[in-house]
């Protein structure tokens, strides 16, 4: 394609034209953008830099606003930055900063151009190069351009110097060895007379200290001087952030800075500086009571301010104080409670967190009642925030705050009936977890689960389906604590359960199976007791097997009850198990006056058979399998009960196996399920001889000979049909008449089992004629007065069961220490990165120094007053330090002897040829250093191979802390 001509350049659309064109587009915006990109691709190939730069400018705009790919224009951006025109260079640097990354292929081509612009006499070109380096600087770029950045740090132009100091942070992060070159000058810049340079340097040290504050303890005197003397609030705020990280490492430093921080807190009128002083006191100076009280008074000023931003900051400061100084929160309790009705959602959430921070074992019930009462009148978002806060607080450290678990389980049940509740998953986890851990609360769990299952309004809320799944599982697992098991079956097989998802309906069916087995087992126990009473009427069955014996007991029971129930027309509800009035939930409750009879058992089996019969042909495999299992069990049981009812004289022993099966299944379901530790999988030993490959490359060799089916066959055969589908394909090849029949069968299978095929365009929508469940879109009035909200603390949320604190706390099953989750889930890294190691080597010397030792400020680094002299340690100071417990290197002959021996061994290994090569290389290095020293503007330049000769001291900056 030919390059654009002069006429094309004259009629080239500018960026303003593109923006105006986009604003006029209503529906064809994408087509217009595609046309502009096409024009850009043509214009950017022009040899004229004005045309190229305008095209690149338009492409940069489209990339930033409409995310148009511009990686293909990387080389054209490099061409623009090489232009002598500043406007073209500015556009090129913007495009590079926006689109370049470490994997850009042409990124190394800009190294020389960056070096050239960094040495330019135009400070604006230098600024562009520094900004670009701070954005896209890679390891190679930072390594190659470190000398230029080091030179610019001492530039006479403040505009350039402060940007060079800022670029140092990127250079240190990518190339830690640059610390050996630039760190000394960075420290010297702390004493600069220009406030902009000092501000930039303090910002860099604030970011560096946030990663590893221990390495920057020797710089505490310089930071303290800035804290006391500086009048720039921004700089003081950054210094306070640094001290908040350094003070926990050195208690004497905290003692030294507490008074200047309190002075700033008393005299400063700037809210930003006042807030940072408060944060520093609450995070690092909590041992000083006077400072904490002063900070608490300032927090109260934030809370009562009309500005919502300041109120939120005050609540945030209270949340920090709640971890160590809870009394600060209690003093402002009324203000926190009033903030729950604020119009700002952030303020409401912050106050909610503070309310939950005041929860204890004695007031958890009252606070939960107040919050749930308030959630009934709140908007959906804040309502779920309240419920989530209650759930997360009450389950902390394996429910350590809960004393009355019956109250808490009833509270979980009431949460489901709160409008807009969307915490069904969390409630599900806690219901199951409490059932496994706390045995004494299982009767209450079954009662709450039964109330949830019989509530038809909950079935239509998709957010509560998981909670209904937990209720069904609990009622099936702990059915022995139920007062009316037949009522549980009625609620589990009710018609509205069709609204539930398939996995939850499968849990319902499994619970029906468990309850049915429990009822039949109870009926067998009752029959055995009746047999004992009628032992004189029952013939001797000692010679027959167990199954025949149990069947005989069932037969005797039927004989005893047949005359009483033959003419009765009682309903199914009259034959169910009723409450005995005393709350007895054991099996003995089934053996009272109103117990299971033969007719009630038959009616129960008929009810289950009629309800689960349609599910045996369900398209869902899980539901179909579970329904057929229950129906098969029902058929087997009804056959034996029917045989006994009609008194067959000669009954085969194989036909009377239902009672034995009931015994076995009930025994299997009686196995208790307990909680599982989160670390149980880690304790499982790896089997001997198990080899785990990192990838599945061996499958290529195994499956290399496998041939994929042809397109024609795979279009008709589903891969889910397995071997049967493959056999049908072969059969269709052999017999053409059967191919049409096979195709029709496959089409029918696709129609019936559409779940396992590709989704069709039209999906069947299942209608529901039931009334809607909890309307999540209904609006509630939450604009109450502040006084009404304060009075809310005296009200109580009426629950079905109030907490009983007089009752002793039940036993909560706990596993190993992995059960208790610490409040701060972060692990402290003990290893230093390369940057911290390089900083310590510069500040503390190249010798191995303990983590708690550092140097004196007078011995640490040469200041501007000292000039460029080397640091020397006085013998008197060394003796004082050695008296404190540590010997200097001069008084440690063993260390000197070890170093001398190691150097002697290294010299003995060198050959004569290598010595000559080293000497030759050393001479060349000396000549280069001399020439560089001669042409350099500076008298001295830091060298990476010559660290400061500083001895390690035991005390941390002792002169400064005295």
From TrEMBL:
It is found in: Endomembrane system; Golgi apparatus. Residues 876-886, 915-928 have a biased composition (Basic and acidic residues). Residues 895-913, 929-941 have a biased composition (Basic residues). The keyword Transport applies. Its main location: membrane. Residues 38-511 form the Clathrin/coatomer adaptor adaptin-like N-terminal domain. It comes from the Eukaryota. One of its GO terms (biological process) is protein targeting to vacuole. Transmembrane segments: none annotated. Residues 853-962 are annotated as: Disordered. GO terms for cellular component: AP-3 adaptor complex; endosome membrane; Golgi apparatus. Keywords: Golgi apparatus, Membrane, Protein transport, Repeat, Transport. Adaptor protein complex 3 (AP-3) is a heterotetramer. Belongs to the adaptor complexes large subunit family. Part of the AP-3 complex, an adaptor-related complex which seems to be clathrin-associated. The complex is associated with the Golgi region as well as more peripheral structures. It facilitates the budding of vesicles from the Golgi membrane and may be directly involved in trafficking to the vacuole. It also function in maintaining the identity of lytic vacuoles and in regulating the transition between storage and lytic vacuoles. This is AP-3 complex subunit delta.
